[in-house]
Design goal:
Layout: H1 2-9, H2 17-118, H3 122-135, H4 152-170
Helix pairs in contact: 2-3, 2-4, 3-4
């Protein structure tokens, strides 16, 4: 009620123009603040985008480097596999060469035995047979030959039997 008395007795002292003059600077200040905030946000967004672009570029470089490393690793694995295959093949070839050399040596020993038998040299035949069996050449002789030829393994058995027969004839 006191308020009513004051208001009724006194005319309004605040002019109408004053509030509108006081609100304009505040609105301008608020607009400037909003514009400044908007500009700060735009600058922050631009800086963030630039940072993201740089980070993305680094990630792409890292991905490219990783792809190169992966391709190199795959190539290394492929080369290691090829190397293992070549080593295995080399071992097989080496084994085949050893077997072939043993077969050649066995055939030469068989030829020597046959020559000594043809010359009726019993002492040389005994020495050849002993060396032949000592070296294990009987296993290295081929079991087959061309058409109408006696296989070397069979020929060895024939010569061995013939030499043994010669020994029994000589030493009854």
């Amino acid at each position: 009620m006191k308020l009513e008395k004051r208001c009724e007795g006194q005319p309004s002292a605040v002019p109408e123009e004053a509030p509108s003059k006081g609100k304009k600077p505040v609105l301008i200040y608020i607009m400037i603040l909003f514009i400044a905030a908007f500009l700060m946000m735009a600058l922050s967004f631009a800086a963030h985008q630039r940072s993201n672009t740089e980070a993305l570029g680094e990630l792409q470089n890292s991905v490219s480097a990783m792809q190169e490393v992966q391709a190199t690793q795959e190539q290394i694995i492929l080369l290691q596999t090829e190397l293992a295959d070549v080593r295995k093949e080399a071992e097989e070839l080496e084994d085949a060469a050893v077997d072939a050399q043993k077969q050649i040596d066995a055939l030469l020993a068989l030829y020597s035995l046959q020559q000594h038998y043809s010359n009726r040299d019993l002492e040389a035949c005994r020495a050849d047979l002993e060396a032949f069996e000592k070296q294990g050449y009987q296993d290295a002789l081929p079991d087959s030959a061309g058409k109408s030829l006696t296989p070397p393994s069979v020929r060895f058995q024939e010569l061995k039997s013939a030499v043994e027969a010669m020994e029994t004839e000589e030493n009854p």
